[in-house]
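Annotated sample (chain length 328).
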Amino acid sequence: MPRRKLGSLEVSSIGMGCLPMVGYYGGGPRDRQAMVSLIRAAADNGVTFFDTAEVYGPYLSEEYAGEALKSIRDNVVIATKFGFGVEENNPTALNSEPGHLRRAVEGSLKRLKTDRIDLLYQHRPDPKIPVEEVAETVMALIKEGKVLHWGLSEASASTIRRAHAVLPLTAVQSEYAMWWRESETKIFPVLEELGIGFVPYCPVGRSYFAGAVNSRQRFDKTDRRHNLPRFTPEAMVFNRPLLQYVQDWATQKNTTSAQLALAWTLAQRPWIVPIPGTTQYPHLIENAGAAHVVFTSNELREFNAGLARIDIMGERADPFTDSQFDKS
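Output written by the structure step:
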């Protein structure tokens, strides 16, 4: 698989998100050995970048990744996150207090079966703790050799600048896909100026662009999409022209719609590395194959021009989740 750089950190051009494995989209946590095997299969197919977090499960996703990657640890890059009150049994509350941060890192190191975290993200900026204080705590962890690089997730341009001024950031993570492009205007200019990489999550629109959901589906409360505005029946009917547009282009380019969505993401900037998640081997192979689907400059202009003419219904998040995004 081709490689890309997030700051100075070299990774495969497509990574693997390990969140769905804990049942994020329904069905409960997947079989441990099956997920360990799937993560190893990703590595066997050229993926070197694996994304997890202590709150995923909680803990299960890190455990799966740790078991899968321990024997090839020096050949992969592991990213994980802190920032929710998992240790305090309050996993929906933001917490980046220094003592909590250190406890979170110690727990992650143990579960990941490693002596260092390659890329440590603050999962969400905590309005109670200045990001400069967070950066100083991470700086101490880097000096101790427990963390190698750091990043932010769902951070504003001003927060990125403040954090980077204390301790240079390697990457910023945010939701980004054809139907959610706010990052292009809000943070891309800052990332480019400062040499920070970008890691989009949900680049296939939580399977929407794979054509795996439709307006007849109803999501129960174990599925993250159950209260997301873009996954109401009305929104899926309204947004059908977007999916059709992607599918038509995929046919034209002799690829799948999921691969086209990933290839489009890669084509936006050379410092973007998407992290699609999956629990199934065929989808893993499909995602990895997207690294070889290329948009020419003319194709990209034509595609984006058509995309701009398609209206989208529905916000990307429910009100509570939206309230935890950094809009400073």
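Annotation: The mean pLDDT is 98.
Annotation: Residues 263 and 291 are 7 Å apart (CA to CA).
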